[in-house]
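Morning. Coffee machine broken again, so started the prediction first thing and wrote up yesterday's gels while waiting. Chain of 560 residues, entered below exactly as on the submission form.
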Amino acid sequence: MNTDALIRSSRRTVLIVEDEAVNRELLSFILRDTYDVLTAADGVEAVELLEAHPGQIAMILLDIIMPRMNGIEFLKRRGADEALSRIPVIVLTSDKDAELETLKLGALDFITKPYDMPEIILARVRRIIEFVEDRQIIQDVERDALTGLYTRGFFFEYCRRLPTPADGERRDVIAVDVDHFRLVNEVYGKGFGDELLGAVAEGIREVAHDGFGIGCRGDVDLFYLLLDQRDDYEAIYNHLMERVHALGRQTNVRLRMGVYRGVEAARPLEWYCVAAKAACDTIRGNYARTVVVYDDTLHERELYNERLIADMENAIAEKQFIVYYQPKYDIRGDAPKLYSAEALVRWIHPELGFISPGAFIPLFEENGLISKLDDYVWRQAAAQIRDWRDRLGVDLPVSVNLSRMDFFDVHLKDRLLAIVAENGISVNNFVLEVTESAYSQNMDQMLKTVGELREAGFHIEMDDFGSGYSSLNMLCVMPIDALKIDMKFVRNVANSATGYRMVELVIDMARALGVPAIVEGVEDEAQYRLMKQVGCDIIQGYYFSKPVDAANFEPLLTKA
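Came back before lunch.
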């Protein structure tokens, strides 16, 4: 049974408001085989029944001339109440002069006295109830319940039916995204998150009404707006931020806005929205920019990204991805000692040449392909650990990265244990690195999974500590075996007392947790000496070696 039929299969309740007992009984008799019937002798009783049966009454049959509260007074009361105003009213009257006034007050139809045509009365009641319910169904599909904006599907359908702009007129598409909305919900609560979305939606409505414009909620925290071409999109952005600031909360909420200028009929509107969203995404995490216009450079980047996505499977099959290794040195003794290595992936494309990890890793993280690449790197690194042990007699721990997507795999632990077993290596030598930002997303699930991995014998290093949002809070509960300090703490530390003190504080935290502190990004002698002075346990960086392939890493093993 479809939704419409299901709704209509249950009996509706009709409220008859009529001061004449005989008329109430007659109308009840006409309707009771089809509807459940409630009756009231005047407007006061009607209000009481409506309050006692919220959301249950589908129709009101309303007399005009009644004691205490007459029909006109009742209609005025109904018009001032949002919930009551949604209930359709058919007026019962023999007074033609009252019809115009009641129409203005929201009545939808009339039934004239005396009630001598029951089939017509029943047909009018049925028609109005079905009309109102059909309208509500359309509105439910048409409007997003939280923001009141059009839904995504209705927005695209509505825009497709719009007439083509006149000569000389052009339209643009805007995508508006709330930066780190998930964290806003976590920090300030879902209630504030809903208020925030409502405020952005209100700003979009105001922009849309300023000339031609149509807005919708495209996703949880994403909005689209089709509007006449404007010159100053910064002004629109500022208006939306004013709505956010009007909430009166001291927050760091930030919006991002992408614009596609010049929508044309040659492509579907969905394409332009995706393009505007792509422009919007280019400034994720870039607090210096708030508005980006889609241009040829972005288009070329999209084509390039599509090429990388299309070539990824073949690249794995042909082993175009090369695993590089960067050493980590223990500096606690008199002389640095090789401690372990981190496996890092590089892509040598047969046509495009060397592709920066900064180009393909975020791309694969966004579309979920990163899990396939991670699995490839894990297997290559595990085989390399075994090869170095068998050929060189060196058991060197190697750390590999776990991406956020990997934690959605319920078989993650079993997959990793299988890779270790297949290569005959120890779980102690197959170290797992998890970024701090991954802990801050789905924290409960992350902690559970990481705990299970540690119970299976794997060592866990928290990578990029200090780059996320909840570092200090999470340190008390997260299961880790080493803390890797983000390289931004190390850059220019030789010339910054503040930077030096920050590194010192994080190392003190690692000591309090009883785990070694690993500082990455150490590039020169001055930084090395400062890290040793401050009490760092292990360092990684260009000072000792850049990431190199397995063959060029081997001299470091034999020298150790």
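The CA atoms of residues 232 and 238 lie 10 Å apart. Going to sketch it on the whiteboard this afternoon.
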